[in-house]
Amino acid sequence: MSTTTAPRSGPHREPAREGRAFALSALAVATVVAGCFLALFPDVLPSSTGPDRSMTVAGAAAGPYTLRILTWVAACGAPVVIAYQAWTYWVFRRRIGCARKAPTPAPIPAPAEDVPDRPGPLHRSGEEDAPRA
Questions:
Q1: Residue 14 in contact with residue 4, Cβ under 8 Å?
Q2: From the CB of residue 54, how many other CB atoms can be counted at a distance below 10 Å?
Q3: Residues 31, 21: Cα–Cα separation, whole Å
Q4: Cβ distance 55 to 44 under 8 Å?
Q5: By C-alpha distance, which of 109, 15, 35 is closest to 7?
Q6: Cβ distance 57 to 44 under 8 Å?
Q7: pTM, entire model
Q8: Torsion over CA of 81, 82, 87 and 88, rounded to 10 degrees?
Q9: Is residue 77 a contact partner of residue 84, using CB atoms and an 8 Å limit?
């Protein structure tokens, strides 16, 4: 149990709580995804026509040459993606938060009283609106 007196919400909230919430959310998502893969193993794509036609892990794997090329592409591309994400986080770190509220939209003005009545959708042109006897 925490003994700090910092408020739990607002602009002065504890950064450790936000980090813990993010880490636990990421862990929950990873657990669900891992559970789905473990439930399907060894099938990658189960067949609806019969279990003998399902795509397995061994059947879905690429060849050694393709895996070698993709490893080099990932080794070169992943640092670029991580650097871009870090830069984006750094740029927008103070622009997102609860301290500033969005402006409320202006109220819609009420219609003026001197607007003439317009004919409804069933009004025929050329006829006068006269009471029927």
A1: yes
A2: 16
A3: 15
A4: yes
A5: 15
A6: yes
A7: 0.42
A8: 70
A9: no
